[in-house]
Amino acid sequence: MTGHGLRGGVTAVLAGLGTCLPPKVVTNDDLSLVLDTSDEWIVRRTGIRRRHVIEPGSSTSVLAAEAGRRALKSAQCDQADAVVLATSTPDMLCPATAPEVADALGLAGIPAFDVAAVCAGFVYALATGAGLISTGIAERVLVIGADTFSTILDPTDRTTRAIFGDGAGAVLLRQGEPGEPGALGPFDLGSDGSLSQLITVPAGGSRQRASGVPAAERDHYFTMQGKPVFKQAVTRMTESSRSVLARAGWTADDVDRVVAHQANARILAALADSLGLPPHKIASNIDRVGNTVAASIPLALADADLRTGEKVLLTAFGGGLSWGSTVLHWPDVVPQ
């Protein structure tokens, strides 16, 4: 699905950016003490050196609320008219986590809901927030990406435990005018459910519960088929990026920075090559935080040292399969 941006003189403008990482850090050397792995093996395959993980007493909502609080501070604002939370690790299966986040932020009575598109969730949530603004439902929308994948990883699986980390990132979108710094451009979104089994948590949903067959312990953990996911990620993000650039009237050469989902350092390198861009244009913080799923893009935005006016391409790929992209001129925003 493609969108040509918001019309009628009303658009969504990025006005604030906040992030939150849990304090506990797990290094590759830490993992090597409990798994058959090593720092060299993990770095060579993923580019990751460390990741943050939550401890007992914390949860996705805790990280999301703090990132949202910091995004509001960055925007010098204490109010929002809606909260859209992208997550695949909600605090509970029911209800959604966003209303609790809104309550924690003192935003009583406003619409708040979750969006589940795994690693593409933040771009989907951005498009949703932009839609709320374009239709006049809200003037300010807090868009949050937060995940705690450490809670759904098989503790004996060296591959997934090496890749994923916990974190949250948020932006405040406000009503503005097309063309001003921070105005979100067109969106490109897509999915392919025929390949849903490439990225999955088999147990816990209605399909498994209705089967009448008790789930095996391993079925409660995240699984991913690495090789086909790698190919799909590069292909889908490349196609989506090209589509949204064409609709924005940009070429790949016009792009100053690409802030893509931080899935794997090799995927980022392959994306740069596929788009014909030099590696330095691809923002990366995966070595320090790992794959933080829906939090990935806002965390990378905060670390990218972007300059006001730079042309920025956002692109992501995740389970579903799902993917999405958008563009903007970077505004004068100080991340918190």
TrEMBL record:
Catalytic residue list: C119, H261, N291
Occurrences of domain Beta-ketoacyl-[acyl-carrier-protein] synthase III C-terminal (ranges): 245-330
Keywords, in A-Z order: Acyltransferase, Cytoplasm, Fatty acid biosynthesis, Fatty acid metabolism, Lipid biosynthesis, Lipid metabolism, Multifunctional enzyme, Transferase
Enzyme Commission number, as recorded: 2.3.1.180
Pathway(s) per entry: Lipid metabolism; fatty acid biosynthesis
Domain Beta-ketoacyl-[acyl-carrier-protein] synthase III N-terminal: 113-193
Catalytic activity, as annotated: malonyl-[ACP] + acetyl-CoA + H(+) = 3-oxobutanoyl-[ACP] + CO2 + CoA
Primary subcellular site in the record, as a coarse category: cytoplasm
Renumbered residue ranges of the record's region ACP-binding: 262-266
Keyword Acyltransferase: yes
EC class of the enzyme, as a word: transferase
Subcellular locations according to the entry: Cytoplasm
InterPro entries xref list: ACP_syn_III_C, ACP_syn_III_N, FabH, Thiolase-like
Subunit structure: Homodimer.
Function: Catalyzes the condensation reaction of fatty acid synthesis by the addition to an acyl acceptor of two carbons from malonyl-ACP. Catalyzes the first condensation reaction which initiates fatty acid synthesis and may therefore play a role in governing the total rate of fatty acid production. Possesses both acetoacetyl-ACP synthase and acetyl transacylase activities. Its substrate specificity determines the biosynthesis of branched-chain and/or straight-chain of fatty acids.
Record comment regarding domains: The last Arg residue of the ACP-binding site is essential for the weak association between ACP/AcpP and FabH.
Family designation: Belongs to the thiolase-like superfamily. FabH family.
Record's protein name: Beta-ketoacyl-[acyl-carrier-protein] synthase III
